[in-house]
Amino acid sequence: MKFWFITGSQFLYGEETLRQAESGSREVVRYLSGQLPFELEYKDTVKTEGGARELIKNANYDDDCAGIVVWCHTFSPSKMWIAALSSLQKPYLHLHTQINKAIPNKAIDMDYMNLHQSAHGDREHGFIAGRLGVAREIVAGYYKDESVVKSIENWQRAAIGAAFSRSLKVARFGDNMREVAVTEGDKVEAQLKLGWQVNTYGVGGLVEEINAVADSEVQAKMAEYRGLYIFNTDDIKTVEYQAREEIAIKKILDQEGCKAFTNSFEDLYGMKQLPGLASQDLMRQGYGYGGEGDWKVSALTAIAKAVSGEPSSFMEDYTYDYDAGLILGSHMLEVCPTIAADKPRIEVHPLGIGGKEPPARLSFSGKAGKATCTCLIDMGAHFRLICADAECVEPINSYPNLPVARTMWRPEPDLNTGAAAWIRAGGAHHTVLSYGVSADIWRIFARIMGVEFVHINKTTDLYRLEKELELGDLLWTLKR
Ligand code: MN
């Protein structure tokens, strides 16, 4: 997908100024294209109401257009943008910049002023977007500044996430875990707001698919496992069954066009093992996953993987080390091996719940680095995306009897405040842990999709957060 760059102007200044506005725009686009992860293409300079309307209509209909960037190099009277911006359906970035970093002492005259007047041209443009209430990201500053480029990149990634989200299909193998509240939610509202098509597929059909997998397919998958992982087990038959499950799940997902899935240990009728290694290896390939039927976190995990090539995983806050101020995150089995600091080991251990055979799983330690933990909860009147900044560390002990993948992090601003803030906001126990999707990207994504965003970070104050949430509840209820 690519992004359209649109320049705002008018006929008032004559052909020469318009020509220079276009060449200046092309220069900005050329520079930014060399810095950004996704293509930016100069489309046109808007001079009339009809021109603006036509361009935005085309952007809406072009499946390859992931969003528009608008910059008013000169003054572009904003009444001519009303119809265009009112109809806009794509993510929108208002870039407020200038071709020159400094004002040239001798070269400045009224011609120069007419050409380089984004300082007020962009204010006129910003007013109409504000008046119309159009969701937009605003990036201000010299276009070659690193922070400006980074902000545009974050918006691009969020916009790519939005496009992915709007066509995302999630397959549910079995329902949510009995009695659990936070994994529930309004699937119609999720499709309306986020585009997610969340549908159920019978476990019986999956079992038929598992049993139909050819031995040759299993052996090919086993060879792949040998290349990727350390076999820390002699129980090859058990590992082969996971290979069989992975192949069957992937077949159904690909056939249905699903990029995310869920299952539940309470709903495995006819399956010998809870998919462990199978789900982990599918996450490695970019599929979203949610345990206990958690389709919201499954979708978020898939989005995180589409937004950034950096590691992301389904995660669960499990237990605390108060001495170290750390959370140990893990799951029954299903942690994505992309976050591993060491080479993952395939192991077979009994599972205390579910009443199935001991499943094969990948065990490893998560790597150090800055990350975010994010969840989506259904507040009834609206969805709330909660994102917490985290400092991941290498696990401080070897925990030799822990039979699952594990990772540790220090939540911002500290364990006690971070945990209290998360609980205050109603945050889920399931999250997507991502090293590449920053809070800024999640924030922009939330704005594009029209869901509430709550950020827990190093400046979080519990009292202020409580007030923010109260106002948020009011605001989002009114919006509805
Ligand atoms: Mn869980």
Q: Can you describe this structure in just a few lines?
A:
The chain is of the alpha/beta class.
Describe the structure.
This protein is an alpha/beta fold. The radius of gyration is 25 Å and the shape is elongated. It folds into 2 domains: 2-165, Rossmann fold (3-Layer(aba) Sandwich); 169-479, Alpha-Beta Barrel (L-fucose Isomerase, Chain A, domain 3), CATH 3.20.14. The chain has 15 helices and 19 strands. The strands form 4 sheets. A 6-stranded antiparallel beta barrel has the order 11-12-17-16-15-18. It has helices at residues 15-33, 49-61, 82-87, 110-115, 118-132, 146-166, 187-194, 203-212, 215-228, 236-256, 277-284, 295-307, 415-425, 439-449, 462-479; strands at 2-8, 40-46, 65-71, 92-96, 137-140, 169-173, 197-201, 230-231, 260-263, 288-290, 312-321, 326-330, 345-348, 360-363, 369-378, 383-393, 406-411, 430-434, 452-456. The chain is 40% helix and 23% strand. Strand 11 and strand 12 form a beta hairpin. The structure holds manganese (II) ion. Residues 291-292, 316, 331, 430 line the site of manganese (II) ion (MN).
